[in-house]
Design a protein that fits this description.
By secondary structure, the protein is an all-alpha fold. It has a single domain, classed as Hydantoin permease (Orthogonal Bundle). Helix content is 79%, strand content 0%. It is globular and about 65 Å long. The model has no long low-confidence stretch (mean pLDDT 91).
C-alpha cells in the first residue's frame, strides 16, 4: 500500500483507537482536567463531566468519524463528498477548512507548553531540583518562561519531532508511533498510580476525586465540565475526521468511539489520582492552574522518596501525551495538501514551519498565545462541532448514516441520532453563551 493519506487505511481497529485516543489524550487530560477538578470541588464536577462526555462529546465524535470514513480523504474533500451525496451545499466544506486552521493555530501555542514539559523532563532526569528549596523550585518556572532562547530551542525541538512523525506517513509514521506511544503512556501512568498510592495521601485523593459535594457545584462548574468534555476529545478540528478516513471499513464506529471515550476518560481520572495524593501528602493546594504541574508537583517530588526518578517518569508521560496530540494537529492539513498534489514531506515541512513561526510569535508576545488559545477553544472548535452535529443529524443521507454507524438496534440508533440533533447542539450553544457572557 502506498503510504499517503489519500489511500491509506489502518489494518487494525486497534490503530485507530490508539490514534484517536492519542489525539484526545494530551495536556488537557493530564494537566487541565486535574486542576479544574480541584478548582470546582472534586467529585460532583467529575460526575457532571462524565454526563457531558456521554451526551455531548461522544455523539459528536461518532458523527465526525462517520464523516471521515464516508469521505475517505482529508476533511475538506470528505465534507465536499458527503455534501454531494446528501444533496447539500458544497459550502459545508467550510467545516474542513476551519478544522485545519484550528489545528494549526492550536499547534502554535501547544508546542510552547510542550516545550515547558520537555524542560521539566530534562530537569527531573538530571536531578536539577533534587536538593533545591521550595523558593528555588517555585522560581524555576518563571525563569523558564522569561528565557526566550531556551523556550525557542524547546519549542523548535518539539515541532521537529512532531513533523518527523507526520512526514513518515499515515501507516509507517502515525500508525506505528501511536501503537508504541500510547501503550507506553498507559504503562507509565500505571507506574505513577502505584507510586502515588504508596507515597501520596491516596485516601484523600480518592475522596476528593469521587466524593460528590453538590454544594460546590456552581453554574460555572457545570459549563466548564461541558466545555472540557467537548474539547478533550479533539472535536471540531478535523483530526478525528482525518483519522476516521483511515479507519477500517468493517470496524463499528459506535464501539470504537466508546472505546476511545473510555480510555480518554480513564486517563483523565488516573491523572487526578496520580496528582492529588502527591499534592495532598505535601500539604499543598489543589486548585492551582499552571502552578499545579510546574510548581507544586516538582516541590512535592523533591521531598518524596524516589521522587526524582518518578518525576522523570511523570514528565516523560506528559511529553508522550503532548506528542500524540500534536501529531493530530498537523495531519488534517497535510492530508488536504496531499490531495492537492503536494508531497507529504513538503506539506509537513510547510505546515510545521508555519506552526513554528506562530509559536515563536507566541513566545515573544504572550497576548498572541492567549488570543489563539481563547479563539480556538472557545470559538472555532465548538462552532465546528455544532456544524458537524447539524450536518449529520439533519442533512446527511440517513440511509448512509444508519448503514455506516453500525449500531445494534433501532433504539440505540434513534437515541444517538436525537441526542446528536438536539442535546449535543444545545450543549454546544450553552458553551457559546457562557463564552460570550450571556449566562
Amino acid at each position: 500500500m502506498t503510504d499517503t493519506s489519500n489511500n491509506a487505511i489502518w489494518n487494525r481497529r486497534f490503530t485507530f483507537v490508539m490514534a484517536a485516543t492519542g489525539s484526545a489524550v494530551g495536556l488537557g487530560n493530564i494537566w487541565k482536567f486535574p486542576y479544574i477538578t480541584g478548582e470546582y470541588g472534586g467529585g460532583a464536577f467529575v460526575l457532571v463531566y462524565l454526563g457531558c462526555i456521554l451526551l455531548v462529546g461522544l455523539p459528536v465524535m461518532m458523527a465526525e468519524v462517520l464523516l471521515g470514513r464516508a469521505g475517505r480523504t482529508d476533511p475538506v474533500h470528505s465534507m465536499q463528498e458527503n455534501a454531494k451525496l446528501s444533496d447539500a451545499s458544497p459550502a459545508w466544506s467550510f467545516i474542513g477548512y476551519m478544522g485545519i486552521l484550528s489545528g494549526l493555530m492550536i499547534m502554535m501555542f501547544y508546542s510552547v507548553v510542550a516545550g515547558w514539559v520537555i524542560d521539566y523532563f530534562i530537569q527531573s532526569a538530571t536531578g536539577a531540583y533534587s536538593n533545591a528549596d521550595v523558593e528555588t523550585i517555585n522560581n524555576n518556572f518563571g525563569e523558564l518562561v522569561n528565557n526566550d532562547s531556551r523556550e525557542l530551542v524547546l519549542h523548535t525541538l518539539f515541532t521537529c519531532i512532531t513533523a518527523a512523525v507526520v512526514a513518515t506517513g499515515v501507516v509507517k509514521g502515525i500508525g506505528r508511533a501511536v501503537e508504541i506511544l500510547m501503550p507506553v503512556l498507559f504503562v507509565l501512568m500505571l507506574l505513577m498510580l502505584i507510586y502515588s498510592a504508596n507515597q501520596g495521601d491516596f485516601a484523600s485523593g480518592v475522596e476528593f476525586m469521587f466524593k460528590a459535594d453538590f454544594s460546590k457545584l456552581s453554574a460555572d462548574a457545570i459549563l466548564e465540565a461541558l466545555g472540557h468534555s467537548f474539547f478533550t476529545l479533539s472535536l471540531g478540528m478535523g483530526a478525528i475526521m482525518a483519522y476516521g478516513s483511515y479507519m477500517p471499513g468493517n470496524a463499528s464506529i459506535a464501539k470504537t468511539v466508546f472505546a476511545v471515550g473510555i480510555l480518554d476518560t480513564l486517563v483523565a481520572l488516573i491523572a487526578g489520582l496520580i496528582i492529588f495524593p502527591i499534592v495532598f501528602a505535601n500539604g499543598m493546594e489543589s486548585n492551582q492552574s499552571v502552578g499545579l504541574m510546574f510548581k507544586s508537583l516538582p516541590i512535592a517530588f523533591s521531598q518524596m522518596p524516589g521522587g526524582i526518578f518518578f518525576s522523570s517518569i511523570f514528565f516523560g508521560l506528559v511529553s508522550i501525551a503532548a506528542l500524540s496530540s500534536s501529531i493530530s494537529l498537523i495531519e488534517p492539513g497535510v492530508a488536504w495538501m496531499e490531495k492537492k498534489g503536494i508531497s507529504r514531506l513538503k506539506s509537513t515541512i510547510t505546515l510545521a514551519a508555519t506552526a513554528w513561526i506562530g509559536g515563536t510569535v507566541c513566545l515573544f508576545y504572550g497576548e498572541v498565545f492567549d488570543l489563539l488559545d481563547n479563539f480556538t477553544t472557545k470559538v472555532t472548535l465548538p462552532f465546528g462541532g455544532l456544524l458537524i452535529a447539524i450536518f449529520v443529524g439533519w442533512l446527511m443521507n440517513q440511509a448512509v448514516v444508519k448503514a455506516d454507524i453500525k449500531l445494534r438496534s433501532d433504539l440505540f440508533y434513534n437515541g444517538w441520532l436525537w441526542t446528536l440533533k438536539l442535546i449535543s447542539p444545545l450543549g454546544i450553544l450553552l458553551i457559546f453563551a457562557h463564552t460570550l457572557g450571556w449566562i
